[in-house]
Amino acid sequence: MRTAIAGVVLLVTAWGAAAVEANGGRAYVDARLYPNQTAGWERFRAAEARLVRGFDQVCGDTFCEGEYHNLQALRFRCSVDAATGHVGECLWTFTGSTARVDMASGRIQVDAQTWACRLPLAGNTPLSDLLGTLEGEDPLHAPLPGTRDSIYEGLTVCL
Amino acid sequence: MTLTRLMARTLLPFSLVASAGVQPADAHPGRYVDLVDYPDKEANWDRFYALQDHLGAEFHDLCGDTYCEGAYSNHVLLQFRCSVWRATGTVHACALVIGAGNLDVDTPTGRVLPDSRAWVCAAPLGADTPVEMLQAALERRGALLRPLPGSFFSLHDALSDCLN
């Protein structure tokens, strides 16, 4: 049994190594775990919480004025090149719905949707620079490092 | 530039029949009305949206030890909606709309992979439940856990089946 488990572990390790090799030797990690979980987790989650607060504050007068008035942020996550500390990409997901009663049948007709929005990051953006921006006064409207685009501007396209 | 819409319009084909007993054959315009508009247009607005907020808070409180322990841990109650048979003032159907999602990093490529979902869950209503009786029951604390009037089942029972 022990041999079998060891075989599986070796196989998984070998597959992982092959995949990394095929990608030019790069390996990415969740930004919450960079440079390690102790240092990365709280800082990233605090940045995510700031973004969500910013979104909730502006939603009523902006994104939530459209067809979906109940938009909710679900998750914000980034990948980071473990070797360089550069961000691979960041996604921010949302959900929202609209419902109406069919007055003839009594059926409740629901249109529920989800969105995944990619941040318009410049190439080779250091995670520390991105987090610095998100920790600023107005993370939703601040230009992202090396760009003129803010997260807010991008959301108007995505949502 | 700007954000890219990846999974936008993941339209879920919900046209929910939220309870048994829908009889399209005898349906005709105006027979049913949204609970918000019962007995008149927007007459129930404040009470209904207070009820929706209450159910959302109860859902949030309950989720951590129940639905949110599964594959998704961030469910949100997006909407609560009911239809009322205008002639009798009884509730015909109610639905809860829930959203949740995960994001995982694909280690070799650096792609962040979304897995977001939404559910429409029907309330297990008792037969011919008067509007006032349902609203009063749902306005109580622990509303999700109590059997609905005239029913053996609670909203929690229905959500457990629907979300798992």
Question: How do the strands and helices of this protein lay out in sequence?
Answer:
The complex is a heterodimer of chains A (159) and B (164).
Chain A lengths: L1 H21 L5 E3 L6 H23 L12 E10 L5 E15 L6 E11 L8 H8 L16 H8 L1
Antiparallel strand pairs in A: 1-2, 2-3, 3-4
Chain B lengths: L3 E2 L8 E3 L15 E3 L10 H19 L12 E10 L4 E16 L6 E11 L8 H8 L16 H9 L1
Antiparallel strand pairs in B: 3-4, 4-5, 5-6
Number of helices of chain A: 4
How would you describe the oligomerization state of the chains in this entry? heterodimer
Largest interface, with counts of residues having CB < 8 Å to the other chain, equals: A-B, 60 and 60 residues
Please state the structural category of chain B. Answer: alpha+beta
Helix content range of the residues of chain A, please?
Answer: 25-40%
Number of domains of chain A: 1
Apparent shape of chain B:
elongated
Total count of domains of chain B? 1
Low-pLDDT parts of chain B are 1-27
Strand content of chain A: 15-25%
**Distance between termini of chain A?**
51 Å
